[in-house]
Design brief:
The complex is a heterodimer of chains A (312) and B (474).
Chain A lengths: L1 H7 L10 H37 L1 E3 L5 E4 L3 H8 L3 H29 L7 H9 L6 H12 L5 H8 L14 H26 L3 H9 L5 H28 L3 H6 L11 H9 L7 H26 L7
Antiparallel strand pairs in A: 1-2
Helix pairs in contact in A: 2-13, 3-13, 4-8, 4-10, 6-8, 8-10, 10-13, 12-13
Chain B lengths: L15 H16 L25 E7 L3 H17 L4 E7 L3 H13 L6 E5 L3 H7 L2 E2 L1 H8 L8 H6 L1 E2 L2 E2 L2 E6 L1 E6 H6 L11 H11 L1 E2 L5 E6 L5 H10 L6 H5 L12 H15 L10 H9 L3 E7 L3 H8 L5 E4 L15 E8 L5 H15 L1 H11 L12 H9 L3 H10 L4 H4 L6 H17 L4 H22 L4
Parallel strand pairs in B: 1-2, 1-3, 10-11
Antiparallel strand pairs in B: 3-13, 4-13, 5-6, 7-13, 8-11, 8-12, 9-10
The chains are: A mainly alpha (312), B alpha+beta (474).
């Protein structure tokens, strides 16, 4: 989507006499875009079409498409016993990762604007999770969360609590995964927000202070509006990411306990590949639904939020 | 051979893509023996003469053994290659977990890039037969007049249908009961008498469960992973089939039977144990349950024989590890555990007679008593070869690990019948998952044991129906 928007931009030339030149420019632009278009066609659009085709076919036991079954896979999915739970889990997960993730990153970014000694060290330290892979951090978290020998329960024991079954209690497991995800996401969010904060000119604050503004008023009237592009970007990107999260769930809970952490993506995986399953038809139907969900949410976000974003 | 079933092939449709796919499938069907029984399968496997003057034959071998087990396997591969220089070269590749290996194998069938030899877990057996890619071991056994009486009949049982052996068992393990002898002593229990039934486990657990001053449990009487495999074992120990149609051995199974009174009684007991604080629920991850036993936080545990070495290392200097037979739901249960693990399949479709023969040579090599003894003592897997247990190195190992004797006795005492052969079901890996979800629900108290297991069986049904339909019914 965004690719199309940028490719259309160079053709917008105001004078008629420059039409020919602009066509040549368009051609050049197209040539420049060609490599990425080819990559997109081969690795994105072709699989997309294939997924759609798979979703309207049944499979043999090896996963090869056999009969055209129309919307049967979609009907089976929508009327299936788990679908509502899966959707609920997917959306809950998105909310409990995106909101705290950006909130905490914003709080930290504001703290890190303080002019104190060693602030660079803290900036680097807080941004560090960005450098960890999902798999590495998930394995570390699985040790932290372990209810028998984990550090987190160790702290809780010190406080006199009985400890929590972080990954085996169906009421807590999703939150545990969200904690790991927020931590992992934090570094990136922080980098983006810190950069945004750094770009806000000091004069604006000075002027506002001269007018008698301070504290909350400064944050609300200057910091937040000028940080809106970064916040908007993070909200859109993290929402899409949270809807597509897989690694943490795969490593920490495998969708359990009792399916309480089975999001749409994990469900796709388990239908297509896990435990000897190769129901590519059903899994592809789920994948198409996920695509629609992401499209709708992103469109809504653009529709509602982007209007309030002030681009300098 | 009647068990070979033609796969339903694509009918195309209007789309260009679908047509192209169908064309590929038609080509595949023509180019190979596909789903039809090949002449070789009915007894004529390539004989040893095909390797004469064939030069070095390279065979690819996919397996799922990593870490210590992977090293031991590679050592055997190297030994074979050294002994067959210029004739056969085995290239072994680790493909990830059993599930990963199966998923990759399915992709390989689609792209016609299957390995010459592949290790597949026990629950994948029915699928492997239905995929119609392999040549049964029985074909080589007939051609060579190969003597299989030296192999453990209980282990062969799982992979035999109608008296015909489809794949060669390689790494086999069975579940046993582990207990903390030191904890038994402290609790005033006889450390030489492990519990044999669920009731006995509960009685012992009541004495073994200890709490500190603040009321926190420091040691649980019992703890085991919520593992679908255990349910299969309990069902076999109760001498009952896990699925219908003679555990899927007289004809294709159409129904899973894990919601019977025996299984409900088991889950009621388990949920009650957790509810009463006598057992800890460490979830479905087997490592977590193992760690709890190793750390001394659980006194009675059930696990595969494969973890014995790890338990002994972890317990050294802290407590003594004891072993007992897999517990019975009721004292009268007359069956025994199923011998799980994985077996080796020789691919036929798109593989030359030389390759098939070379794979068989390697399979025979692995069955050799001395190599089985090596495999057994390096990994803790049960030897497939009976005579391996008489090997001096093997006997020395068993002497060092007297707990393993429990497994040997348990195997000897298990009668071979339909129940202890285990269930053959195309969607067995998924059925195991569904059972596991049911077990977990019952233990967490989210549903009554009956309702939870009914739900598991209900979840299996569409999968079974779909599979049987795709493979042409019976």
């Amino acid at each position: 989507m965004t690719g199309n928007a940028t490719s259309a931009a160079p053709s917008r030339v105001s004078t008629v006499s420059a039409a020919r030149a602009s066509r040549r420019e368009g051609m050049t632009a197209f040539l420049f875009l060609l490599p990425s278009l080819v990559v997109f066609l081969v690795f994105v659009f072709y699989p997309l079409v294939q997924s759609f085709s798979l979703s309207v076919h049944s499979n043999d036991i090896i996963g090869r498409p056999t009969l055209f079954v129309g919307l049967e896979n979609y009907v089976a999915m929508l009327t299936g016993p788990d679908f509502r739970l899966v959707l609920w889990t997917t959306f809950s997960f998105a909310i409990i990762t995106v909101v705290p993730g950006i909130g905490i990153a914003l709080g930290l970014a504001l703290l890190l604007t303080a002019r104190i000694r060693g602030i660079r060290f803290f900036r680097t330290a807080f941004a560090l999770p960005f450098a960890f892979s999902v798999a590495t951090s998930a394995v570390v978290f699985s040790v932290l969360f372990n209810s028998a020998v984990g550090v987190l329960n160790g702290f809780l024991y010190q406080l006199g609590s009985a400890g929590l079954n972080w990954l085996t209690d169906p009421g807590i497991a999703l939150i545990s995964i969200a904690i790991a995800t927020v931590w992992l996401q934090l570094g990136y969010d922080l980098l983006v927000l810190a950069a945004g904060l750094g770009a806000i000119p000091d004069e604006l604050y000075e002027a506002a202070r001269l007018d008698g503004a301070s504290g909350w008023r400064l944050a609300r009237s200057i910091t937040l509006p000028l940080l809106a592009p970064q916040l908007f970007f993070l909200i859109v990107v993290s929402t899409i990411q949270s809807l597509q999260n897989f690694g943490q769930i795969y490593i920490l809970t495998r969708g359990g306990p009792s399916n309480s952490t089975t999001t749409l993506v994990y469900s796709i995986y388990s239908k297509a590949f896990a435990f000897g399953s190769s129901d590519f038809g059903f899994a592809s139907a789920e994948a198409v639904v996920l695509l629609l969900i992401v499209l709708v949410i992103t469109t809504i976000q653009f529709g509602i939020l982007e209007r309030r974003v002030f681009y300098r | 051979m009647g068990v070979h079933v033609r796969l339903r092939r694509g009918s195309g449709g209007g789309r260009l893509l679908a047509l192209a796919a169908a064309a590929v499938l038609v080509v595949a069907a023509c180019g190979s023996s596909g789903g039809t029984p090949s002449p070789n399968a009915s007894g004529g496997a390539p004989g040893p003469e095909v390797l004469n003057g064939a030069g070095p034959v390279q065979i690819s071998f996919w397996h799922a053994m990593n870490g210590n087990n992977g090293t031991a396997l590679q050592a055997l591969v190297d030994k074979f290659n050294a002994a067959n220089q210029g004739k056969i070269q085995v290239v072994a590749t680790y493909q990830g977990t059993y599930d990963d290996t199966l998923a990759k194998y399915k992709a390989a069938i689609q792209s016609k890039q299957t390995p010459s030899l592949i290790q597949i877990y026990d629950v994948g057996t029915r699928f492997m037969i239905d995929s119609a890619q392999t040549i049964p071991m029985q074909a080589f056994i007939s051609t060579d007049k190969y003597d299989i009486s030296q192999l453990q009949p209980n282990i062969l049982g799982y992979y035999s249908i109608g008296g015909s052996l489809y794949s060669m068992p390689f790494n086999t393990s069975m579940p046993i009961l582990y207990y903390n002898k030191t904890a038994f002593q402290k609790a005033g229990l006889d450390p030489t008498k492990p519990p044999t039934t669920l009731d006995e486990i509960r009685a012992d657990a009541e004495k073994l469960t200890t709490k500190d001053a603040s009321g926190k449990t420091t040691q649980y009487g019992f703890g085991a992973a919520i593992y679908g495999w255990f349910m299969e074992q309990w069902t076999a120990v109760a001498d009952q089939p896990y699925c219908n149609n003679g555990n899927g051995r007289t004809s294709k199974a159409t129904k899973v039977l894990v919601n019977g009174p025996e299984q409900v009684q088991l889950m009621t007991w388990w949920a009650q144990m957790v509810n009463d604080g006598l057992a800890v629920n460490t979830g479905r991850n087997t490592t977590d349950a193992q760690n709890a036993f190793k750390a001394g936080r659980v006194a009675i545990n059930i696990e595969s024989t494969g973890v014995l070495g790890g338990y002994q290392t972890a317990a050294a200097g802290k407590f003594d590890v004891g072993t007992g037979f897999y517990p019975k739901v009721q004292a009268t249960d007359a069956g025994g555990p199923i011998i799980g693990g994985a077996s080796l399949w020789i691919d036929q479709v798109n593989h030359s007679a030389q390759e098939q023969r070379a794979s068989w040579e390697f399979v025979k090599f692995l069955n050799d008593p001395a190599n089985q003894a090596y495999w057994h003592t390096k990994t803790g897997y049960f030897p497939v070869s009976k005579t391996a247990l008489n090997d001096p190195t093997d006997q020395a190992w068993v002497q060092q690990h007297p707990q393993f004797q429990t497994a040997i006795t348990q195997l000897d005492q298990t009668k071979l019948d339909v129940a202890t052969q285990g269930c053959l079901l195309g969607v067995m890996p998924q059925a195991r998952q569904n059972t596991e979800i049911g077990m977990e629900k019952a233990i967490l108290g989210q549903a009554t044991p009956q309702a939870a297991l009914d739900a598991a069986v209900a979840a299996d049904q569409p999968l079974i129906d779909q599979y049987n339909q795709a493979t042409g019914g019976q």
